[in-house]
Write a structure and sequence with these properties.
Length: about 210
């Protein structure tokens, strides 16, 4: 558990997760009346979603993290933070977007995306930025040889924010993620990205 205190002004700076927020914002269906961010941490994506969605629910199972997310988000009337475990949380709401940033590897993949798909409206979008495990030591070195200098450049050239929420090493490789995505979310688009991340975008069929 990370307990470092982060000044509010630094809560929305750069890190390996916020780097991919533009990709997620581009996946938001328009119009978007309701969005749900799962494992919201300090709420950086939720605050950005609140500028393009009518209402945003942001859920995290750590009450202390949710308290800090709320403190960073004063004044956003269309953003609600919920302290709950996504895997047992129930809602009657349906969403145009459900997002996970660096959260899906904390959860059982197939059960979590199936649950997220259930909360989506027909034509709603599931958008994930996730972490995958390199399949070998050599692959991990090759990836890091490129990613580290790029990450270092970004750190030197913009204000940085720590994640400020519990982190975990990923257990699934991208090949395993692709296999489970194909089985549970037919048509999902999975892409590898440079900074130790992948993205997954899936649109719920309109007739579902
Ligand atoms: C690595 S942090 C990512 C936080 C944030 N999305 C970001 O991009 O900075 C993963 C978050 O997922 C949350 N989390 C893990 N399992 C969860 C669950 N079952 N339900 C809700 N939140 C969960 C953790 O508490 C943590 O805040």
């Amino acid at each position: 558990m990370v307990t470092k205190v982060i000044p509010a002004s630094r809560a929305d700076g750069w890190n390996h997760n916020t780097h991919y927020h533009p990709l997620l914002l581009a996946a938001v269906p328009r119009p978007c009346s309701r969005a749900l961010d799962v494992g919201c941490g300090l709420g950086s994506l939720a605050r950005r979603l609140a500028t393009v969605a009518g209402h945003v629910d942001a859920i995290d199972r750590e009450p202390r993290v949710i308290d800090r997310a709320r403190a960073f988000s004063g004044g956003l009337a269309n953003l609600r933070f919920i302290a709950a475990d996504f895997m047992t949380w129930e809602t009657s709401e349906r969403y145009d977007l459900v997002s996970f940033v660096a959260t899906l590897h904390h959860l059982p993949f197939a059960e979590a995306v199936t649950r997220a798909a259930r909360w989506l409206r027909p034509s709603g979008v599931l958008a994930v930025v996730g972490l995958d495990r390199a399949p070998s030591w050599l692959a991990a070195c090759a990836r890091s040889a490129i990613a580290y200098p790029v990450s270092h450049y970004y750190r030197l050239t913009r204000p940085v924010s720590p994640i400020g929420a519990p982190i975990l090493d990923p257990a699934m490789t991208l090949a395993e993620i692709r296999r489970q995505a194909a089985a549970t979310l037919p048509g999902a688009i999975v892409r590898r990205h440079l900074l130790w991340r992948y993205s997954l975008v899936w649109t719920k069929p309109p007739s579902a």
